[in-house]
Amino acid sequence: MIDFRTGAPVAGRLDVRWHAGHPSPADDPAPAIQVHAYSEHTLVLRQNKSVHFEAPFLFLLFGNERALLLDSGATADPADMPLRATVDALIDEWLRLHPREGREEYGLIVAHTHAHGDHTAGDGQFADRPHTETVGPSRAEVISYFGFEQWPLRPAELDLGGRVLDLLPGPGHEESAVVFHDRHTGLLLTGDSLYPGRLYITDLAAFTATVDRLLAFCGTNPVTHVLGCHIEMTRTPDQDYPRGTTYQPDEPPLELTPGHLRRLREALTSGRSQSGDFIVVYED
Questions:
Q1: Rounded distance, CA 200 to CA 171, Å?
Q2: What is the mean pLDDT of residues 69-85?
Q3: Which of 230, 172, 228 is closest to 201 using CA atoms?
Q4: Are 75 and 121 spatial neighbours (Cβ–Cβ below 8 Å)?
Q5: What are the backbone angles phi and psi of residue 223, rounded to the nearest 5°?
Q6: Could you tell me if residue 4 is inside a domain?
Q7: Is the pLDDT of residue 284 over 80?
Q8: 234-250 pLDDT, tens digit each
């Protein structure tokens, strides 16, 4: 059994150059999914912008009893986005390196940072996969599956088998949004609530309360990096790529910090839109 608690949070690697599309998407030689090992038990996947301009990031976390796939990408067709085949191969390789009894029953949870289609489109690829649970994306389904009480005020926990995640309700961008904190790595996975890009707010009061809860959580828990699900900015402060861009050669890194949460809170207080590494879009 792997000890996911001792020495946590463990260090990981983000020395990666993310594939940012191709000038001619039809001629892009890169695979549909880029896979980066943040650590031995934590993988970050990115959908190729040549397949879908949203190019969402997905996360695959391994525990002793089951793995968590967080989000399923923006494309349903496995011919264009072979997510199931990729995840199956990654799980098989992890189990080969970490042999155990009953490996045939090793589980998989497919869950989501929120319910928008660019994060849920690949769910159908896992419909007939053995020992797999796909969490419905609606608020009621999310609350029921994870056992949230007094949503959105109280967090929940998810145990993958010795590897525990804190689940923090995150409405404001979308009503069923959840932020995942991995105690093993200290990663705070914020979905579309915070990332280097355009942060679309549909409910300002709910979003502000979410940011306040995240700031309070960061004040008492170790957070190594804040990882959202997109990159939409250039390396020039306040300058983003237009929506629909399929080639972004001047992307900044994906990772942000709890300090960016504080800057986001300040932007919400002042009503400011541009904040250097992200842009707040008030739709409320």
A1: 12
A2: 98
A3: 172
A4: yes
A5: -125, 120
A6: no
A7: no
A8: 999 999 999 999 999 99
20 within some domain: no
Structure tokens at 61: 């976390």
Of the pLDDT bands very low, low, confident and very high (cuts 50, 70, 90), residue 85 is very high
Q: How many domains does the chain have?
A: 1
Expressed as residue numbers, the domain containing 63 is: 25-282
Q: Mean pLDDT, the chain, as a whole number?
A: 97
Per-residue CA distances from 238 to 197, 247, 274 (Å):
9, 18, 6
Q: % helix / strand / coil in the chain, to the nearest 5? A: 25, 25, 50
Each residue of 138-197: pLDDT tens digit?
999 999 999 999 999 999 999 999 999 999 999 999 999 999 999 999 999 999 999 999
Global pTM reads 0.98
Collapse the DSSP code of 73 into the 3-class scheme (helix H, G, I; strand E, B; otherwise coil) and give the result. Answer: coil
Q: Rounded to whole angstroms, what are the CA distances from 190 to 42, 86, 123, 166, 228? A: 16, 23, 20, 12, 5
Distance (Å, whole) CA 51 – CA 1: 38
In a domain, 1, yes or no: no
Taking the CA atoms of 223, 60, 166 and 159 in sequence, report the sign of the dihedral they define: negative
| Cα–Cα distance for residue pair 205/155, rounded to 1 Å | 19
CATH number, domain of 131, equals 3.60.15.10
Q: Are 182 and 159 in contact (CB under 8 A)?
A: no
